[in-house]
Specification:
10 strands, ten-stranded mixed β-sheet, Alpha-D-Glucose-1,6-Bisphosphate, Chain A, domain 4, alpha+beta
């Protein structure tokens, strides 16, 4: 465990050197950082934490897009629209608290490098609303939504050092300070949802 802590600390130091500021550290070991993005009042978010499973198993969970509605926070609908090689087009309809429901379609690209010595799993995404369903009534469509998951093996091979990056604008008439707070505060719940889902036998 001491070695794992040192590895995670090294990643944190690298992050803070990149202009990131520690915004939240939870009791269950999730560190959330934010950073000013040039030309925008909305901050980038990056989180790090350990997940008690191999990167391959964690990757199965984050790739289980059709079932996000069953375990991801606020998700009411989720479906794969199309697949083209290493790219997946994914539609999601979410119901955040207080505000109007949102939806979006993403282009998700597998950028994994499975080298046996220095491999990792990575999936990144960006908006692709033109590849998904038409806009819905009484729903705000997200046009800014970029991010990635990076999954790296721990030294013992039984845990994953996970890094999650997100830059998104939920649109609508929401004050910027509230957008930044919501983006920052929602990330730990995503980690917890994956930690819980990882125990499901369907990923064996």
């Amino acid at each position: 465990m001491r070695t794992l802590t040192i590895i995670l600390l090294a990643k944190v130091l690298t992050t803070t050197a990149g202009g990131w500021e520690l915004a939240n550290e939870t009791n269950d070991g999730i560190k959330v950082f934010t950073r000013i993005k040039a030309g925008s009042d909305i901050r980038e978010v990056q989180a790090m934490g350990l997940i008690d499973a191999s990167p391959a198993r964690v990757y199965k969970v984050i790739s289980d897009l059709d079932n996000y509605k069953d375990f991801m926070p606020y998700t009411r609908e989720s479906k794969v629209v199309a697949k083209e090689g290493k790219t997946t087009f994914f539609y999601s309809y979410i119901a955040p608290p207080v505000v109007t429901n949102r939806d979006y379609t993403l282009r998700m690209t597998d950028q994994s490098n499975l080298d046996p010595l220095a491999g990792f799993y990575k999936v990144s995404w960006e908006p692709a609303n033109d590849r998904g369903p038409a806009p819905r009534s009484n729903t705000v469509r997200l046009e800014v939504n970029k991010g990635y998951w990076l999954l790296e093996v721990s030294e013992d091979g039984k845990q994953t050092t996970a890094t999650y990056y997100l830059y998104t604008d939920p649109a609508g008439q929401i004050p910027t300070w509230l957008v930044n707070k919501a983006n920052r505060d929602s990330v730990p719940d995503i980690f917890r949802a994956i930690r819980k889902r990882i125990k499901d036998k369907r990923y064996d």
